[in-house]
Specification:
By secondary structure, this protein is α+β, with helices and mostly antiparallel strands. The chain is 28% helix and 29% strand. It has 6 helices and 16 strands.
Length: 370
């Protein structure tokens, strides 16, 4: 019995030892396999055929550098993933994208992302650096903004839209291009992927947080009034001015009260000078009437005025009051050149909007809708 017990004990020790050795061997193989997979993934991220991609053009014709100097920006751009945001500060579509862009700047700037706001103006007042700085402060923009006043960088990108986002990888190749609002999750995923690619290429350890910025996206109305332009050049080929007097370039026109109004057209009354990009109130008082369909109405204006807002002939109700209208009233005070939200409701509907304006020299450029 003792001999059999001894034999069994020895046999058991041999089995345990063998299992231990096999465990070490398989563990080593797993580690080597894991390291091989990581190495292969890194290599795949580095070895990307970029012959089909264009390189981002140089920033050219820049009138002003805001939040940065030209020399510092040139240095910052080296080996960074660069998001070029082409925007202008009175564009409502651009404004709606800014919370996402500023959030991406906060989240990824330490990981190798550089955001550059390329401010390409639509209107003359947007060429003033003080006006743009006001917008930068208002929207909490901390990344560099370059003022492309003569649209030279806009042309270098072969762009035609506000807003537009281009993302270039750390070697300067444009890897993503998006026009307008939306696709925020996809855009952020592109940022994350290009930052991983950069880290792999440069041998840098970075955070791997795959979560996405959580911001409620503006829901557009499917059927809404299109943007309406008050400038005779901007309104070319658009039948938007309903008054029979029409546009008369660089003349002061006395517009009469219309007998009837049509949807998606505006009707000024009073004396208005027709400019290429706007109308200027020459009389002390004037009105603009509009039959629109939307849940949100914005205007772009310049110079001082007090504007009384009526809907369907009645005082503006609280549930339709825009964010820039004085609380508890139906009056909008405008001073600086900017975009102002005058109607803000939960659902789209059709209404007659009347703006009763006091302020000689007041200029109006556009109506925009949401």
């Amino acid at each position: 019995m003792k001999s059999e017990l001894k034999t069994a004990l020895i046999f058991g020790i041999i089995i345990v030892a063998g299992v231990g050795i096999l465990s070490v061997v398989f563990s080593t193989l797993d580690q080597e396999s894991s390291l091989a997979n990581i190495s292969e993934n890194i290599q795949n991220q580095i070895n990307i055929d970029k012959t089909g991609f264009k390189t981002a053009p140089d920033l050219v014709g820049i009138a002003h550098y805001l939040n940065i100097t030209p020399e510092k920006l040139k240095e910052e751009m080296k080996e960074k993933v660069v998001l070029y945001d082409i925007w202008t500060y009175s564009c409502i579509n651009c404004i709606r994208t800014l919370p996402y862009i500023t959030a991406w700047d906060d989240k990824y700037s330490d990981q190798g992302l550089l955001i550059i706001g390329v401010h390409s103006p639509e209107f003359e007042f947007e060429k003033d650096p003080q006006n743009v700085m006001m917008a930068i402060d208002k929207h909490g923009i901390n990344y560099p903004v370059v003022m492309d006043n003569e649209m030279e960088t806009w042309k270098a990108f072969e762009n035609r839209y506000w807003p537009r986002k281009y993302i270039a990888d750390h070697e300067g190749y444009i890897r993503y291009d998006h026009i307008g609002e939306g696709d925020y999750e996809k855009t952020e995923q592109v940022i994350q992927n290009l930052l991983k690619e950069r880290a792999a290429s440069l041998g840098i350890q970075t955070a791997t947080d795959a979560s996405l910025v959580d911001i409620e996206e503006f829901e557009h109305t499917l059927f809404r009034t299109p943007e309406l332009y008050f400038g005779y050049e901007f309104a070319q080929n658009r039948n938007q001015l309903g008054s029979h007097e029409g546009f008369q370039p660089e003349k002061t026109v006395s517009y009469n009260v219309p007998e009837k109004i049509e949807l998606h057209k505006f009707y000024p009354t009073g004396d208005w000078k027709n400019h290429s990009d706007s109308m200027e109130l020459v009389s002390d008082e004037g009105t603009v009437q509009l039959l629109y369909n939307a849940k949100e109405v914005n205007i772009v204006t310049e110079n001082r005025a007090e504007i009384e807002i009526l809907i369907d002939g009645k005082m503006l109700p609280a549930e339709y009051s825009g964010k820039d209208v004085q609380t508890g009233s139906n009056v909008l005070s405008v001073s600086e050149p900017n975009l102002y939200n005058i109607i803000n409701s939960n659902e789209s509907s059709s209404h007659v909007l009347d703006l009763k304006i006091k302020g000689k020299g007041f200029q109006i450029f556009t109506f925009t809708f949401g």
